[in-house]
């Protein structure tokens, strides 16, 4: 059994939180394996670029539209614009080598 278009596109796109994607076109509800519906507010997203919040094999890719709104899009109507910047974790050493000059005098005077 072959994968539905939505699942194949999701595997290919491999969206990660922080990635940027562009919405290319409108999609009919429940098309090609996508378990979702296209709402009127999504039409204004066509041609624009958004940041990925998360992805789900059924619902698709959730993007941030503005400060109060997010939408789930099927992967096959999205284009990857850029991957999120990789976070580099810099480790801080717990101890540093210390060099000490030490003079010890044995005995009395």
Describe the structure.
With 109 residues, the protein is mainly beta. The chain contains 1 helix and 5 strands; from the N terminus they run H-E-E-E-E-E. It has one helix at residues 5-13; strands spanning 20-23, 49-56, 60-66, 69-73, 78-82. A 5-stranded antiparallel sheet has the order 4-3-2-1-5. The chain is rod-shaped, with a radius of gyration of 26 Å. The termini are far apart.
Q: TL;DR of this structure?
A:
The protein contains 1 helix and 5 strands, in the order αβββββ.
Name the strands of the widest sheet in spatial order. Answer: 4-3-2-1-5
Mean pLDDT score, rounded? 87
Q: In percent terms, what proportion of residues is strand?
A: 25-35%
Low-confidence stretches: none
SSE sequence, one letter per element: HEEEEE
Q: Outline, from the CA principal axes? A: rod-shaped
The tally of beta strands, per DSSP, is 5
Q: Considering DSSP H and I runs of 4 or more, what fraction of the residues is helical?
A: under 10%
Report the sheet with the most strands, covering strand number, pairing sense and barrel closure: 5 strands, antiparallel
How many H/I helices? 1
Oligomer: single chain
End-to-end Cα distance: 94 Å
The rounded Rg comes to 26 Å
Structural class: mainly beta
